[in-house]
Amino acid sequence: MANFGHIKHYNANTGTGFIRPEDGEDPLPFRASEMIVEGEDPKEEIRVRYEIEKDRQGEPQAVRLQKA
């Protein structure tokens, strides 16, 4: 299922950040390697489409990010 939100924070040094979901849920972590368009760094405040999966610890994370 596709979800929409905005990149709230992105740290280029670690390649990680957080998405602020449009539905008001808690921010979700993501990795830059999950951006579908390779070679394009995430930028704060851009709107993205993503899916949610659980990480190894069972916590939700955003995956398969695309600009929306």
Mean pLDDT: 90
The CATH class name reads Mainly Beta
CATH superfamily: Nucleic acid-binding proteins
> How many distinct domains?
1
Q: Radius of gyration, Cα only, in angstroms?
A: 11 Å
Q: Number of DSSP helices?
A: 0
Largest sheet: 5 strands, antiparallel
Shape call: globular
Protein name: Cold shock protein, CspA family
GO molecular function: nucleic acid binding
Pfam family, one: CSD
InterPro entries: CSP_DNA-bd, NA-bd_OB-fold
What does this structure look like?
It is a single chain. By secondary structure, the chain is an all-beta fold. It has one domain (3-67): Nucleic acid-binding proteins (OB fold (Dihydrolipoamide Acetyltransferase, E2P), Beta Barrel). Helix content is 0%, strand content 51%. The protein has no helices and 5 strands. The protein has strands at residues 3-11, 16-21, 28-31, 47-54, 60-67. The protein has a 5-stranded antiparallel beta sheet with strand order 3-2-1-4-5, with no helix packed on it. The mean pLDDT is 90. It comes from Altererythrobacter xiamenensis. Residues 2-67 form the CSD domain. Residues 1-27 are annotated as: Disordered.
Summed up, what is this model?
By secondary structure, the protein is mostly beta strands.
Write the layout of secondary structure elements.
Elements: E1 3-11, E2 16-21, E3 28-31, E4 47-54, E5 60-67
Antiparallel strand pairs: 1-2, 1-4, 2-3, 4-5
